[in-house]
Amino acid sequence: MTIEHVSTPSTSVTGKKRSFRDALVRVSQMREFTLILIIVAMFIGMSFASPYFLTWANMKAMLLSFSTEGIVVVGMTMLLIVGGIDLSVGAVMCLAMVFAAKLFMLGMNPWLASLASIGFSGFIGWLMGLCVTRLGLHHFIVTLAFMGLARGASMIITQGTPISLFTLPPEFKFVGQGTLFGVPFSIIIFFVVIIISDFLLRNAKAFRKIFYTGSNEKAAQYSGVNTNKVKLYVTVLSSALCGLAGIIYMSKFGAATPNFGVGLELNIIAAAVIGGASLKGGEGTIFGAILGIALLSVVSSSLILLDVSVYWQEFIKGLILLAAVAADHHLHQKSKAKS
Question: TM segments (predicted)?
């Protein structure tokens, strides 16, 4: 005669409580959870500090401000995961705008001009990737050089004068200015980019190699991963996304200015690092990076509404970047000590 163990309702409930508690502990330990708490706390604080913060106009302005930059953050996050960095993002965005605007002024269809410009931006990324993989140069030095090259090219093409695009067709302006079901179309593009990139980064074999390369390049090579190829296509993708963001800005403002995006790399790198992308490589998520750019957008909006001086705004953003890098280094050293 066998005695079967029958779980009582009390033990079943206890098990459910324990699993729920364990799940809460795991969620609370996620870096993104801390970011969400900070953003929520800022929302609550600013709702009392300014009556204009929680208005739809301000929420829409914040969404628009970080949605286009968020596209660039996606590429930067992947580049940081693979162990690189890109200081040329603002300059490449600017050159993409200028290049497309110049082609349009020469009579090319704006859609074809935009595709050509995005392709040209990807080509710039390919050149940078070759300098890294073939010449053995570091991403930092290469992208610093290309930042100057792209910015200089924009100045040469425009002669330092903004290109006004009053004759852009309405259907093209819709990309940056139009709305779909009440939602700005540029925000829809942003969500499409992050959904696709997050899915690929989590599931696609080629994109999982980004983590392997950034975590331990030697081990990845021994496992048969062509790490140079991975670095190359990630650099190309990052620059192409900069081109896409530049085209959206051009459509939004109906102009291309040669000094656009100066200092933008500070916001982009800060957002990616705050969101959990490690400067050492091998770590990072798209969701975390988007939370990072959202936090910076909330900070910028709060500083403006509180009438903080522009000079202090840059100072505070610098402090945020420094704190993010310090936290990243501390967490990396802590995890290294545990392992």
Answer: 33-55, 61-82, 111-133, 140-160, 180-201, 232-250, 262-279, 286-305
